[in-house]
Structure prediction request, 293 residues.
Amino acid sequence: MGNPSWWTLNRCYSHVYRLGLQPVKAGEHKRLCLLSDLHWDNAHARLDLLKEVLDEALEQDIPVFLFGDVFCVMQGKYDPRSSQDALRPEHRGGEYLDKVIDTAIEWFMPYRDVIAFVSPGNHEAAIRKRHETDLISRFVGGLRAAGGRCIQGSYWGFIQIIPESCRQKNKFSKKLIHYSHGHGGGGEITRGMIDHSRTRSHYLADVYISGHIHRRNSEENVFATVTNKGHLVYRQQLFLRSSCWKDEMRDEWHSGLKGRGPRPIGGWWLELQFKKRATAHSYEIEKMVPVLM
Prediction:
């Protein structure tokens, strides 16, 4: 496919990354692909559904963001959740972690031009603690060695969305995404929704995205503020939870030992809608719309 033509991603500072968008037109829509909890190496992962999403992202040159638990890696030594039923045949026979990384790089290789960002989750953090190997670093390094442009991110952070102009005088709006893999257990009643309130009390952003609890939900908030020129304006906030990509009911740890029910599969498309500003040749992000996968 070649290099992405309308977006670039760079690390600015610790926990801060900048997504630059090339010139757009009024009424134009662009999408981002927000995923988490792939658990790619689990035998019960729905790789068929994941492939459909990644194929669409590749076809439309949509940047893909992976916010933790790309890998399951629970079937090794010292993990009480390990089960041979969840171990894929190609990962058997020793050198477990090495085989997972090697096969993952091979499987994701066709999407190396659109995988923009990969950050760790609690599963990768546990492997790093117990086995002293950074799976995300090895995965990103393998894709970059083959020409990929993905960036390794921290467990939590910010992504600035900055539409750029081919004319230096143009001004564009900026949007800010706060991401985190997530934490906690996601109770049956609150289903993680209460975490949105906690997050907004600590971090200020336009979009909040997390995963971890294998729930998928969204909430929209609108608040009033005042510009530097004293104009009253309304700002949109989105709170998104991305779910997993494996069939939990086939997992004895989840359904049997923990007594939990099925979970939704999928993440979010985040659609950016642009409008023309009063200033000539200037456009801004008018609205951000979450779209179910």
